[in-house]
Write a sequence for this structure.
């Protein structure tokens, strides 16, 4: 099944999310910050990116902006953040994120969003 | 004034009152006396002379009658005796009878007829040399036998006259004495008090002692004058004291103003602290969410693992469920706190729109029904008629209804929950009313009072038993108020509760608000003219459909594009070779020469090769398009924003510099992000002073985004400074501030700025829309002044 790139600096949250995604049958890769995410993106070309926004070295906003202005801009990016204000959501969408999920994650909802975007991506490639 | 004119006044005005009074009294008395004396003398004179004449005539006739016999018989002796009888009257000086021109008899005896010749021959009385004379004929048998003459002196009159003079002299003397007395009295009672008063008044005015009072001796006009003077003085004293009070007050006002300044400074600090508090809460929310994410996530996962793999650890799973539910509760608590803090800070926005209330009710019921069922409650909906369209904030109303219904369901077990909805008309106008009635545990009187206060669930154990944060009703009531309505509750312990929420069908002032926003944005911006022309992007549109030309003209001309139209492929190519364009927008399906051909031709000629071409068509063959060298591919129909975003990449790089002056890092980041993909160069300054310095260096700044509260130089001061530089004064300013503006501040700002945006309450669209509107208007203005 599809490969998802999880970009998350909090180890516990990353572990939890990855294990839950694996249980749902997704393959996963983990990047700890924006820089690593960009490197792995080139190599792995994942089907979708789950992007935490507050990250060390290069934050999620910047990483997303770079992804969205590069050749792999078609890969959907879902922002994951503990910032719960509408403003934050807009900020993420402005940076180019395709979707937004507030922590704590409502897992079924996140799964729905992932399927939505993957579905779209497949439709586009067909 | 009075002093000056004193010398110019006639003498009678200058004479003292006393002299005037005295002379007028004396004059008057003398006049009366004179009139009396003259008239009395005249009267006495006339009376005396008439009487003297009459008496003399009578005496003459008596004597003449008596002497008739003597004359007849020539008896001179008896005639003389008869004449002698007149000696009884001392004033008769002479009596004489003439007969035949000779003296017949005379008294006093011996007097001759000398001089008698001169006597008048006729009858009657006459006056001659202070003597009265009378001549009476002595008639006997109708013959005049002789004539009697009498002479009387005026001695008696002289005596009367002398007496009269004595009387008048006496009267005159008496009058003089009386006048003296009267004038002395007048002097004592009028003149002297008046002059004393005048001297006193002069002293008072010199000494400016308005507390002195004149002494009143009499109750007459002078007394009244004293009273009025005293009243006047009292008035003056009052004014004097008012003046001194004014001074005291002015000092006080100065002091108060200083206090006010201090208070404003304190308030600003408090506001900053409040902002810090809100920020803290937002941070807290973030910090709490991160571990919660793990707690909830792990718990859910563990639950899955345990049941999926059929490990006999159901009990463990139950405990884990507690972790999860605790986490969830913590989350709803945080959400509610966040909402409340927003409401308190006045930052909770309303998003007013038209929505169908009946659909909303169905939606809410759909969510609440499973909950009601799980508690064994029957849910009954009673909608009176159709509620229809409501203009309000649908999210807030949904939250209120959900809160009331979930409370009702929670506090009722195996009972009845009714939702009643109606459109009503009362004194507040057209309203919509939702009423939630339950047959649950009810609320006691004392708990009713604190029901709507935050964190005041009826009983601390309630939270554990029924869940919830205790903030729902507080939030609901705040929302209801924001929407112009209210929530009321009626309840009886053990029998159930009824919560009724009511709010206007159409929120007040909504229409005006929108209209105002439009008007201020447009008029302000339109009133400006710009000197420098803006760089326009030259766009060649090649399309055979005239409608497309019209639409693009309408959509793009306000955003800095100059549209050049070509109605066919051939015309387009011709224009592309002749003129220089920044971008070409090309249709595919055209008669004669289609878009593919045009594209190939454009990309094969050196002159046109480098001009970006955007395909804009209903043909969805992107691969072919890109293969032939198209730079972008847009499939009709397309939204204006997508069109603008795409074309932005090919815009002539303009000098659209935007200066952002704000000390808040978050705002800087946010605006940066908002404008990231727009064709603007964002220059940042952290305060007004820095902003001014940048303006000097960065020529051609198009718009200033300005915060108000900043260190070093705040927004108000910055605006003042900018007004002093004519070259900067024309740069439009958009105020972005979290500062709550007073009406005065607002109107002041609107005189010099275009738009005021509240920090944290604007969207990307709003910001960009405002900027584009202002820039668009500048272009219009430039166009107008150019044509």
């Amino acid at each position: 099944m599809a490969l998802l790139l999880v970009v998350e600096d909090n180890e516990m949250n990353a572990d939890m999310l990855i294990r839950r995604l694996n249980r749902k049958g997704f393959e996963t890769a983990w990047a700890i910050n924006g820089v690593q995410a960009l490197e792995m993106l080139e190599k792995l070309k994942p089907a979708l990116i789950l992007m935490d926004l507050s990250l060390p070295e290069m934050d999620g906003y910047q990483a997303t902006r770079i992804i969205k202005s590069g050749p792999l801009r078609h890969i959907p990016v879902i922002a994951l953040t503990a910032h719960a204000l509408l403003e934050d959501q807009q900020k993420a969408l402005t940076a180019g994120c395709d979707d937004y999920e507030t922590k704590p994650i409502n897992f079924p909802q996140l799964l729905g969003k992932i399927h939505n975007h993957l579905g779209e991506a497949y439709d586009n490639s067909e | 004034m009075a002093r000056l004119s004193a010398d110019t006044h006639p003498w009678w005005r200058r004479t003292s009152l006393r002299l005037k009074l005295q002379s007028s009294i004396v004059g008057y008395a003398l006049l009366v006396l004179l009139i009396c004396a003259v008239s009395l003398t005249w009267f006495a004179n006339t009376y005396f002379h008439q009487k003297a004449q009459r008496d003399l005539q009578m005496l003459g006739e008596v004597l003449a009658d008596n002497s008739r016999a003597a004359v007849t018989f020539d008896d001179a002796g008896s005639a003389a005796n008869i004449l002698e009888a007149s000696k009884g009257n001392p004033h008769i000086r002479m009596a004489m009878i003439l007969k035949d021109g000779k003296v017949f008899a005379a008294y006093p005896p011996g007097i001759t007829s000398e001089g008698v010749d001169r006597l008048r021959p006729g009858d009657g009385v006459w006056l001659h040399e202070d003597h009265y004379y009378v001549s009476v004929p002595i008639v006997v048998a109708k013959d005049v036998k002789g004539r009697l003459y009498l002479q009387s002196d005026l001695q008696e009159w002289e005596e009367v006259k002398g007496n009269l003079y004595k009387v008048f002299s006496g009267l005159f003397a008496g009058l003089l004495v009386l006048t003296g007395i009267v004038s002395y009295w007048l002097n004592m009672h009028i003149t002297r008090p008046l002059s004393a008063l005048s001297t006193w008044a002069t002293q008072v005015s010199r000494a400016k002692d308005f507390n002195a009072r004149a002494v009143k001796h009499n109750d007459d006009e002078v007394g009244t004058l004293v009273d009025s003077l005293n009243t006047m003085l009292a008035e003056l004293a009052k004014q004097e004291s008012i003046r001194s009070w004014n001074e005291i007050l002015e000092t006080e006002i100065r002091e108060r103003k200083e206090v006010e300044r201090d208070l404003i400074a304190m308030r600003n600090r408090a506001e900053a602290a409040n902002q810090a508090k809100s920020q803290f809460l937002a941070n807290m929310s973030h910090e709490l969410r991160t571990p919660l994410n793990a707690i909830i996530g792990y718990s859910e996962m563990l639950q899955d693992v345990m049941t999926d793999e059929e490990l006999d650890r159901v009990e463990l799973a139950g405990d884990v469920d507690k972790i999860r539910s605790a986490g969830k509760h913590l989350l709803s608590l945080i959400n509610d706190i966040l909402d409340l803090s927003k409401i308190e800070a006045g930052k909770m926005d309303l998003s007013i729109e038209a929505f169908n209330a009946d659909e909303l009710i169905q939606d809410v019921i759909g969510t609440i029904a499973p909950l009601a069922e799980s508690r064994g409650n029957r849910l009954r909906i009673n909608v009176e008629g159709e509620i229809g369209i409501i203009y309000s904030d649908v999210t807030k109303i949904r939250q209120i209804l959900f809160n009331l219904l979930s409370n009702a369901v929670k506090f009722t077990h195996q009972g009845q929950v009714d939702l009643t909805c109606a459109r009503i008309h009362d004194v507040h106008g057209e309203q919509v009313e939702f009423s939630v009635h339950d047959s649950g545990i009810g609320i006691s009187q004392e708990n009713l009072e604190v029901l709507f206060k935050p964190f005041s669930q009826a009983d601390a154990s309630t939270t554990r038993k029924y869940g919830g944060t205790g903030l729902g009703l507080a939030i609901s009531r705040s929302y209801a108020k924001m929407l112009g309505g209210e929530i009321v509750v009626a309840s009886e312990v053990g029998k159930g509760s009824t919560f009724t929420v009511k709010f206007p069908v159409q929120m007040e002032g909504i229409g005006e608000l929108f209209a105002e926003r439009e008007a201020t944005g447009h008029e302000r911006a339109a009133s400006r003219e710009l000197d420098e022309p803006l760089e326009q992007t030259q766009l060649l549109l090649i399309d055979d459909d005239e409608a497309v030309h019209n639409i693009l003209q309408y959509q793009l001309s306000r955003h800095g594009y100059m549209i050049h139209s070509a109605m066919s492929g051939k015309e387009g190519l011709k224009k592309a070779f002749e003129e220089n364009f920044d971008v070409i927008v090309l249709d595919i399906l055209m008669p004669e020469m289609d878009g593919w051909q045009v594209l190939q031709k454009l990309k094969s000629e050196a002159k046109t090769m480098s001009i970006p071409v955007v395909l804009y068509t209903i043909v969805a063959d992107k691969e072919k398009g890109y293969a032939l060298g198209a730079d972008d591919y847009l499939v009709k129909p397309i939204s204006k924003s997508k069109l603008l975003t795409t074309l932005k990449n090919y815009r002539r790089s303009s000098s659209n510099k935007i200066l952002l002056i704000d000390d808040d890092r978050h705002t800087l980041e946010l605006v940066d992000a908002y404008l990231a993909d727009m064709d603007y160069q964002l220059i940042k300054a952290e305060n007004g002073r820095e902003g001014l310095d940048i303006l000097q260096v960065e020529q051609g700044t198009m718009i200033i985004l300005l915060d108000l509260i900043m260190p070093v130089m705040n927004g108000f001061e910055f605006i003042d400074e900018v007004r002093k530089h004519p070259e900067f004064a024309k740069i439009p300013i958009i105020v972005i501030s979290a500062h709550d503006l007073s009406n005065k501040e607002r109107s002041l700002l609107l005189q010099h700025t275009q738009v005021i945006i509240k920090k944290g309450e604007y969207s990307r669209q709003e910001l960009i829309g405002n900027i584009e509107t202002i820039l668009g208007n500048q272009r219009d203005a430039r166009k107008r002044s150019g044509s």
Summary: Strands of chain A lie at 3-7, 27-31, 48-52, 77-81, 99-102. Chain A touches chain B through 24 residues (CB under 8 Å). The mean pLDDT of chain A is 87. Chain A has one domain: 3-125.
